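Consider one such protein record:
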Amino acid sequence: MVKPEILDTLPPGDPAAAANLRDLRLLNRLMGNWRWAARILRRRLRPGDHVLEAGAGLGDLGRELRRNVPELRTCRYTGLDLRQRPADWPAAWDWRQGDLLDLDISPAPQVLLINFLLHQFTDLQLDRIGRSIAGIPVWIFCEPYRSRLPMVALALLRPLGLHPITGHDGRVSIQAGFRGRELADRLGAGVGRTTEITVDPRGSYRLVSGERMAALPASSANDCRPGR
C-alpha cells in the first residue's frame, strides 16, 4: 500500500531533508544499488544510446555512474526529477524537470533507469506509466523488497545515526515494495520483453527488462522468501 513519505513534504533546504538524503546515499552504497546499476549499464549500453534516469533527485546516482561506467562517454544521459537541475550536474548532460507520471517520453530513450521511485505510485499509476514506457527497449529498475528482513536490517542500522525520518520513510518504502513479478506485471512487461527479476538479501528488488536480453528460462523471476 502506497503511503506518503515525510521527505516529500519537506522543503529542499530543511536540515531534516538534508540528513535524510545523506542517509539515502549511505543506504544505497551499503545495499550495493549503485554498483549493481553500473554493472548492468556496462552490459547493456551501446554507443550513442540515450539513458533517461527518472527520479534523479540531487544527481547522486548519475554522478556515480559517470565516474564508474566508461561506456557512458559515448552516450547521452538525461536526469528527470521534480527538482530543478542540480548545480553540479554534468554540463554535457541534460536535465528535465517534471513527473514521470505525466511525461511525454518522445522520442523514447534506449534505456530507462530508475532507483527507488516506482514504489511511490499506485497500481493504476503504474499501469499508466507502463503504457508510456512500453516503447523503451531496456528497463533497469531497483526498488524496495517487501519483506521482514529489510525491516530488521533497517532497525539494525540505527546505531549509525540514521535520522528518524529515514527510519519512518524506510519502513513505508519497504511496505510499498515488490515481490515476484508484481512490478513487471503492473508495468505490462509481458509479450515481446524478456524480464529478469532478482532480490538482494540487503533489501533490493531488481528488475531488468527489454528487447536486448538473451533468452532466459521461464523461471527467471527469482523471489527470495526470507519472510513476509
Remarks:
- The chain has one domain: 6-210.
- The first strand starts at residue 50 and ends at 54.
- DSSP finds seven helices and seven strands in the chain.
